[in-house]
Amino acid sequence: MSALATQGLVKSFGDKLVLSGLDLQVNHGSITAILGPSGCGKTTLLRIVAGFVEPDAGVVRLGDRTVVGNGRSVAPQRRRVGYVPQEGALFPHLDVAANITFGLPRALRGGPRIGEMLELVELPRSIAGRYPHELSGGQQQRVALARALAPEPAMVLLDEPFSSLDASLREGTGRSVVRALRAAVATAVLVTHDQNEALSLADQVGVMRKGRLAQVGSPTEVYRAPVDPEIAVFVGGATVLPAQVYDGLARCALGVLSVPHAQARGDAQVLIRPEQIQVDDGHEDGVAARVTEVSFYGHDAALRLDLLPSGPHVVARTIGSAVPPTGAIVRLRVSGAVTLFDPARPGALATDLA
After folding, report:
1. Does residue 232 belong to any structural domain of this protein?
2. End of a domain among 201, 224, 247?
3. What are the C-alpha distances in Å from 235 to residues 12, 75, 146, 238, 273?
4. SS3 256
5. Whole-structure pTM over 0.85, yes or no?
6. Between the ranges 47-56, 65-74, 250-259, 268-277, where is the mean pLDDT highest?
7. Which tens digit of pLDDT belongs to each residue from 74-94?
8. What residue numbers bound the domain in which 331 lies?
9. What is the mean pLDDT of residues 251-273?
10. For residue 212, what is the domain's CATH number?
């Protein structure tokens, strides 16, 4: 049985439909990331599971208990769900120890529990007497997680927990939080608009669109086999080009790509990831393109290019030691797995080695 199962969740605020028949299953001990743009209903889903918001229709089950649906609605404090809001929401007038033990019975607020929870979230016991304003943003988020885990909840919900952190803190704090969740054998649902966060931290990723989950799968499945071009572009910044498919080949603006097991013929769309586009400024083979923009990250760079003479715009990713300047004319070749989409119906037609 799943740790969490929702079925047909519907929620509107006024005349705005936020959730439209949303279904989700989360396995025990797993971390699920709900990925989507701002305003797509991610936080509303969490708040319904926590019991802070009542849905207009649908069912929520936590383990073998129905907490919403069939005329039943269990109060938030009886659901055994920990909630970590976006800003952590620590009580500013309480020290770390009091924040962590706030939700515990009075008899359990002393003793070793505070130190155990601090160690679990990789913080030193010495900060137990500090106040939230004396902590860094990353430390505050880990204290908020310790507070959520202290009562040993059945599930932990995290609402964009790293969005307010500096880029330098995001990855390290995210990894610390995941290690703590795994050490506690906790089931967690994390909502985020950051695709890198979702793909790197979660066991399962659900992509939200128009109040529903458009695709749910492992990070590898969602990235390598998106169910439609919109998800392909949203998760990983893919280039999607029109193509003509025939005899196991796909002809598009980036050349003729081999897809030997494709059954489709005629019009299609081809999905090409930025890392599949090989950039060479000293080779005669490949398709000519002009570099229009360079985003340099040190270890690598994202290049925005216009195919010549008047082709479409594409994005390539290259290593940081081989970055051509803006305006350079380069040659592009495609390598790796190619996915085809039929524009007339959703779903990938084929994924093959080019």
Report:
1. no
2. 224
3. 27, 36, 31, 8, 10
4. strand
5. yes
6. 47-56
7. 999 899 999 998 877 899 999
8. 237-353
9. 83
10. 3.40.50.300
